[in-house]
Amino acid sequence: MTHGVALQRVALHTRLKPGKEAEYESVHAVIPPDLDEALRGAGVRSWRIWRDGLDLFHVVEVEDYAKMRAVLRDHPANIPWQARMSELLDVEDDYSGNDSGIGLVWELP
């Protein structure tokens, strides 16, 4: 909980285009300040990404994942970021679906 708000923890999986590993990591070395502000304004408290070869595994802690996606869908800071990501990712996220992340199977209590 953050400031009395229960957070959702959402796991995501994306995949890089072959040969884009170093470029992806380079692009993520510095997140644009306006995108950082947009993510935080949309309720994101943390976003971590791990890479195994071409596979990317994300864990997002957010107040409301569906609301976050709705806020970011047409946000002026997110549109160019998603365009850049579409150059690197195997499948682009166009924010059109009801993405709810990867289902949790087990967690050590």
Automatic annotation (TrEMBL):
TM annotation in the entry: none
Taxonomic superkingdom: Bacteria
Molecular functions (GO terms): racemase and epimerase activity, acting on carbohydrates and derivatives
Pfam families the UniProt entry points to: rhaM (PF05336)
InterPro entries listed in its UniProt record: Dimeric_a/b-barrel, Rham/fucose_mutarotase
Protein name as catalogued: L-rhamnose mutarotase
Organism: Amycolatopsis japonica
